Amino acid sequence: MDPLPSTTPDFWNSRYLSNQTPWDFGGVPADLKAYLKTHPRGGRVLIPGCGSGYEIKAFIEAGYTVTALDLSPVAVARARQLVGPDSAPNIFASDFFQHDFGSTQFDVVYERTFICALLPEQRNAYRDRIAALLKYRGALLGYFYYQTPNLQAGPPFGFAWGTADELFARYFLLGKDIPVADSLPLFAGHERWQEWHRTSFGATPQVF
């Protein structure tokens, strides 16, 4: 296992600086492109773990207002450069679990390679924070990695089959679930595009 904990900015900075980024798609994946073609309505989007920022730009071009975070200042600098000065102030080098969102709620939370970068014991906190930040009927959508996690190997940490349903059912209904055809080799055969919709089930978690 890497001597740097994967919960630290230094871990991810070292990956970006050494170009050890097998999760970096280098553009916008096909399922997100398809989603944006059918949902060009705008709204507020949150992208935790935004990486180099390709999806930020895609959402902005589709008319959305985007707030994006990454734990790595190196990734954030690249994302800001990609999107330009008008949108750069909405990209933060910040910890998703500690960031102050104020009273902002989002229509969409876009997920790609963020939850699988978290330790499995952080997933309940992830779910609760997403549920609190999403509007009723808002969507948690994107790419989910299904593979029994190997804690000794480090991230990505996948979901064992059935565990995502158990995790999200408290606040979400699964509206779409399809295999991903253009996965990177790191995720090939184990990645699914899913759209989880925020329901009125349960009280809104108090996480702020």
Regarding CATH, which class of the largest domain?
Alpha Beta
From the alpha carbons, calculate the radius of gyration and give it in angstroms.
16 Å
Describe the largest sheet: 7 strands, mixed
What is the number of strand segments?
7
Q: How is the largest sheet built, in terms of strand order? A: 3-2-1-4-5-7-6
CATH topology (fold) name of the largest domain: Rossmann fold
Indicate the overall shape. Answer: globular
CATH superfamily of the largest domain: Vaccinia Virus protein VP39
Quickly count the helices: 6
Mean pLDDT: 91
Beta content comes to: 15-25%
Low-confidence stretches: none
CATH architecture term of the largest domain: 3-Layer(aba) Sandwich
Q: Which class best fits the helix and strand makeup?
A: alpha/beta
SSE order, as H and E? Answer: HHEHEHEEHEHEE
Spatial separation of the terminal alpha carbons = 33 Å
Return the domain count: 2
Task: Give a verbal description of the structure.
With 208 residues, this protein is an alpha/beta fold. It folds into 2 domains: 59 residues, Vaccinia Virus protein VP39 (Rossmann fold, 3-Layer(aba) Sandwich); 97 residues, Vaccinia Virus protein VP39 (Rossmann fold). Helices cover 26% and strands 25% of the residues. It has 6 helices and 7 strands. The chain has a 7-stranded mixed beta sheet. α4 links the parallel β2 and β3. The chain is globular. The protein starts with 8 loop residues before the first helix and ends in a 10-residue tail after the last strand.
